[in-house]
Design a protein that fits this description.
Layout lengths: L2 E3 L14 E7 L4 E9 L1 H5 L2 H10 L9 H11 L5 E8 L2 E15 L2 E8 L11 E2 L3 H17 L4 E8 L3 H11 L4 E13 L16 H15 L4 E6 L4 H12 L2 H4 L8 H16 L3 E8 L2 E11 L2 E9 L8 H15 L4 E3 L6 H4 L5 E10 L3 H16 L15
Helix pairs in contact: 3-9, 4-5
Length: about 400
């Protein structure tokens, strides 16, 4: 497999020649080409249109894997970090994209050359986006071979990857090639399947406890008795509307714990820009529940395809006796049914309040691949030793992943 310098295609961003690596190999017609583009957010924007088209063709299409999510993350949280955008093309057509960050980092006391997912906890999920079918699978394998042979690293770290996702195929291929891997479960992420039924949303409550349903109805009646209850839905990233959400979130325990969005400039930049991007591409959904004109609960969410994704939630603790956050979930579920959605995805961890709604959850994993460098092998030994020395969260499978 040869390595050669490759110029950018006409009409694309001109990337310095030393920052583009091209690896080509022939598969039975057509030609598969893998490129690694180094730079900043501009390398994401240079193929954003093709990337979005690829998302539309992929079986794992979710908003978190789109270019606007990656570019927003880079601007807010990693503006000075070098980005490595790995692309695979078949006969010039984009078939897979993997956005990574390259950095010198510390891992359990070791300085290492690390590749990691271009995402953090606010991005909620991360994956390699690829086309469906054999070409996508070949592209995934070729991307791994490119990382193995043409990029210098000791540790490859991926966080919040859904079990069975395309990126786990890449990890499986690394394991087959003899590279040590490590896994830990990051979240069990709950969701509610929305069943066909009447349009008031009650069909989506079938999996809940009867006592819980009765309490919801009673609390809705009691809050309604205090004055008019109104549900508002916004699909525009109006700054005043976003400020209403931010203020409600900051007024409660998130403000006291210093985890509210507005208490960190980078975090607020991320959510401001994500809201604008979601509006631009028609998947922003913000819900606010009002009682007598006062905001008592709110959700910052996304309506993407046939699914609703809950990014952030907030409520007025002065109304805690009515469980306004749970009442809002009920109201949003009813609206999702009316809109023909098939799923309400809570995202994030399986918090206790989410367990009232569902027992269904998807496993998300964090993965590490250790290179066969001296430091990579040392890290692998260290992870194994730490697992046996104290009850670590890592689980190192000795076999190829079942997902392949």
């Amino acid at each position: 497999m040869g390595i050669e310098w490759s110029p950018s295609l006409p009409g694309q961003l001109v990337i310095p020649r030393q920052n583009v690596i091209s690896v080509e190999e022939t598969i039975p017609k057509p030609l598969l080409t893998v490129e690694g583009h180094r730079g900043g957010v501009e390398v994401v924007e240079s193929i954003a249109g093709e990337w979005r088209q690829l998302c539309a063709e992929a079986h794992n299409d979710q908003p978190f894997f789109r270019p606007e999510w990656v570019s927003t993350y880079l601007r807010a949280f990693a503006p000075r970090k070098p980005t490595l955008l790995v692309t695979a093309r078949v006969d010039g057509r984009l078939k897979a994209v993997l956005p990574l960050v390259e950095e010198q980092a510390w891992f359990w006391g070791f300085p290492v050359r690390k590749l990691r997912s271009a995402a953090n906890v606010h991005c909620l999920r991360f994956d390699l986006i690829r086309s469906a079918g054999p070409e996508g699978q070949l592209a995934t394998q070729a991307i791994w071979e490119f990382l193995r042979d043409s990029v210098a690293w000791d540790l490859f770290e991926m966080q919040h990857v859904l079990a069975g996702a395309p990126l786990e195929d890449l990890v499986s291929t690394a394991s087959v090639n003899g590279f040590p891997i490590a896994r830990r479960e990051s979240w069990h992420s709950p969701y509610i399947p929305i069943l066909d039924g009447n349009t008031n949303g009650e069909s989506s409550l079938q999996g809940t406890d009867a006592k819980f349903r009765a309490n919801l109805c009673r609390r809705w009646r009691n809050l309604s008795a205090q004055g008019t209850l109104a549900l508002q839905r916004f699909d525009k990233a109006d700054p005043q509307m976003l400020q209403r959400f931010y203020e409600l979130e900051r007024s409660g325990w998130k403000g006291r714990s210093r985890s509210a969005i507005t208490l960190d400039a980078h975090t607020q930049q991320f959510y401001d820009q994500i809201a604008r991007a979601a509006e631009q591409f028609n998947y922003l959904s913000v819900y606010i529940l009002e009682s007598n004109g006062r905001d008592v609960a709110a959700q910052l969410g996304l309506s993407y395809g046939s699914r609703y994704f809950l990014l952030k939630t907030a409520y007025d603790e002065a109304y805690s006796q009515y469980s306004p956050g749970q009442l809002l979930v009920r109201a949003v579920l009813a609206d999702c049914v009316k809109r023909g959605y098939t799923e309400f995805d809570f995202l994030g961890a399986f918090d206790n309040w989410k367990r009232d709604w569902t027992s269904k959850a998807r496993v998300q994993n964090d993965w590490c691949v250790f290179n066969k460098t001296r430091k990579g092998r040392a890290l692998d030994v260290l992870v194994s030793a730490m697992k046996h020395a104290r009850n670590t969260i890592f689980d190192r499978p000795s076999h190829v992943l079942n997902s392949i």
